[in-house]
Amino acid sequence: MELQSEKAEGQTSVLVLLNASKNLTQEDFTRLIPQGQHMEGWTLEEGDILKVIPGRNLATLEQENYYYLLFSSPLSAFVYQGHATRIARLAAEQTPDSLHTALAPTPGYMVDGIDVYAAIQAYTLTPSTQTLNLRQLKPPMSALVTSIVKNGGYTAILNRPDKMPFEVRLTLEGPQIPLSRIRYIIYESGRDRALGWSGGDEANIKITKYEPKRPETPTSGNEEGASVSWPPAEQQQLSIDMSKSRVSLTGSDTSDVALKRRKAHPVYILGFHTEHAAQSFIRYWHRKPMDWGSKQADPEDDLAPIANAELLW
């Protein structure tokens, strides 16, 4: 579903946050919506941020260190940018960074009508020692950003035929195990705690393997072989991301022989019915060995792979 009608789409404004942590959430951004502002066109509703979209490598869905912030109008984006920049400066000025600086502000300490203590507590976009790099994108925007605005995100993620309401990106460090083994381990761990992971009635969660195709055959694959068309801008970005992934895996050698020797680890997408279920799975499995039962390691390797789980949003 498109985020905007054609008329509203022309009014959508985009901020991009650069050099940011990969661990930010939607709430980290909405906490900074200015309160008490009475400007024409600024409604004080959380919906003024239409959506926050993390930048991603489309070859692996790995999150990058930037975020797109979509707003309902250029004024909303401008006011938010100014307020967030002001809070960032207050955090830099008022946060003690050594034993020789002033004490941290106490609750109720006001500067120009802002409770500095509350503002610093709410600000998590960057460390206090780092300059906030929040820029407004001016039209004409790139084809990729235009596609993201039109669709409310990457179609590679949003328009998959098997998409679930909430999803987790899962990768394994170390020895890789078959998808059937992953499914069995997750099922057994859920049965052991007498509560399934899916957040619904299913005994197990839906797991698909993310296998993007080359731009010549623009599909997003999974174990059932389903596909979805990608916009040309995402096809182009996928080609770039696949090239970057090749270099990171093989150095300067991107030959087929080198790639065969050192393939990228599979990326799995796990589907959940509720955000609570997805977050529970992440809290339980992230950075833990992916094993279960008395046989707790691969018999040929003596090591179980380590799970990396993150919310795909």
Brief write-up:
With 313 residues, this protein is an alpha+beta fold.
Strand content: 15-25%
When the domains are counted, the total is: 2
Biggest sheet details: 5 strands, antiparallel
Oligomer: single chain
Helix count equals: 10
What's the helix-strand series? HEHEEHEEHEHHEHEEHHEHE
Tell me the structural class.
alpha+beta
The percent of residues in helical segments reads 25-40%
Distance between the termini: 16 Å
What is the alpha-carbon Rg in Å?
A: 22 Å
Strand order of the largest sheet: 9-8-10-7-11
Average pLDDT metric: 80
Secondary structure tally: strands: 11
Q: Which term fits the overall shape? A: globular
Low-confidence stretches: 4-9, 37-47, 217-227, 249-261
List the topology elements:
Layout: H1 6-9, E1 13-17, H2 26-30, E2 49-56, E3 63-71, H3 74-94, E4 110-111, E5 114-115, H4 116-122, E6 134-137, H5 143-151, H6 155-158, E7 166-173, H7 179-192, E8 206-212, E9 220-221, H8 232-250, H9 256-261, E10 267-272, H10 275-285, E11 306-312
Antiparallel strand pairs: 1-3, 1-6, 2-3, 4-5, 7-10, 7-11, 8-9, 8-10
Salient structural properties:
313 residues, alpha+beta, Alpha-Beta Plaits, 2 domains, five-stranded antiparallel β-sheet, four-stranded antiparallel β-sheet, 10 helices, 32% helix, 19% strand
Description:
This protein has a 5-stranded antiparallel beta sheet, covered by helices on one side. It is globular. The protein has 313 residues and is an alpha+beta fold. The longest helix is centred in the first third of the chain and has 21 residues, at 74-94. The chain has helices spanning 6-9, 26-30, 74-94, 116-122, 143-151, 155-158, 179-192, 232-250, 256-261, 275-285; strands spanning 13-17, 49-56, 63-71, 110-111, 114-115, 134-137, 166-173, 206-212, 220-221, 267-272, 306-312. β4 and β5 (114-115) form a beta hairpin. The two termini are 16 Å apart. Helix content is 32%, strand content 19%. The protein folds into 2 domains: 6-152, Alpha-Beta Plaits (2-Layer Sandwich), CATH 3.30.70; 156-312, no CATH class.
